[in-house]
Design a protein that fits this description.
The protein is built from eight helices and twelve strands. It has about 250 residues and is α/β, with parallel strands linked by helices. The protein has a domain of about 150 residues: P-loop containing nucleotide triphosphate hydrolases (Rossmann fold). Strands 6-7-8-3-9-10 form a six-stranded mixed β-sheet, with helices on both faces. A four-stranded antiparallel β-sheet has the order 2-1-4-5, covered by helices on one side. Helix 4 crosses helix 5 and helix 5 packs parallel to helix 6.
């Protein structure tokens, strides 16, 4: 199930953040939203999740307007992981079970328990099942938040800076988890990140946002030095390191 937004606009207190932007994002693909701070990336994610109401335009999930879906129907189709995770004394296993709530109407059953166990095992997180969220490291907490989103079995996965504040190893592991699940479940995954090189390593589609508009959208060809230099306001160069493209400031290459 893909997601599309048409002529989407939004303002905070009269200050325009997004100005009539349009895009169609296909399933089975990791889409990365790039732009400087204040470009409207997080606002776009919240609009797609239905947490914010657009001033103009619409969001379509499949061919159905997002505004026509109930909260329960949205939760069955869309999983959202914010930048910062809340900690508590809740056990990891019970926290993941909450991800099954949109698909059940009373207490969790054996099928839900089995799905949670299978997801923890698949992601090599079973050793954390009986740990409290408050006892987890930043990297562990982010992986558990993703695991909860995965057991929700969404069609669309929205992630707002899922690698922020993580060390390099955890950044790579989190992005690998996202890419594998997107491919395995044919998800429409939309991520905001600041690390261009991380985006180049894992994403297949790119949305470049600047001055309340979409500067460019598409596959790898839109990630040109010209577009990226314009996006970030400084000269950048691109080169290939093994199988990966890398972007660096021009005077540092």
């Amino acid at each position: 199930m893909g997601i599309e937004f048409k002529q989407l606009s939004f303002a905070y207190g009269g200050q325009q953040v997004l100005d009539k932007i349009s895009c169609r994002l296909r399933p089975g693909c990791v889409h990365v939203v790039l732009g400087i701070n204040g470009a409207g990336k997080s606002t776009l994610i919240k609009l797609l999740a239905g947490f914010l109401k657009p001033g103009e335009g619409s969001v379509l999930l499949g061919n159905k307007p997002l505004k026509d879906l109930t909260l329960h129907q949205r939760a069955q189709r869309i999983a959202y992981v914010p930048q910062q995770q809340q900690t508590s004394y809740l056990l990891v296993f019970d926290y993941l079970l909450l991800g099954r709530k949109p698909h059940r109407y009373w207490q969790s059953g054996r099928a839900d328990d089995a799905l949670v166990c299978a997801m923890l095992e698949r992601l090599d997180l079973s050793h954390l099942a009986q740990r409290a969220l408050s006892q987890l490291s930043g990297g562990e907490l982010q992986k558990i938040a993703l695991a909860r989103a995965f057991v929700q079995e969404p069609k669309v996965l929205l992630l707002d800076e899922p690698t922020s504040s993580l060390d390099l190893k955890n950044q790579l592991e989190v992005m690998e988890m996202i890419a594998l699940e997107t491919s395995a479940k044919n998800l429409t995954t939309i991520i905001t990140v600041h690390d261009v090189n991380l985006a180049l390593r894992f994403a297949e589609s790119f949305v470049l946002m600047k001055d309340r508009k979409i500067l460019a959208f598409g596959d790898l060809e839109v990630m040109s030095p010209e577009h990226l230099s314009q996006l970030y306001g400084l000269p950048l160069r691109m080169y290939r390191q093994g199988n990966c493209l890398q972007v660096v400031p021009e005077n540092n290459l």
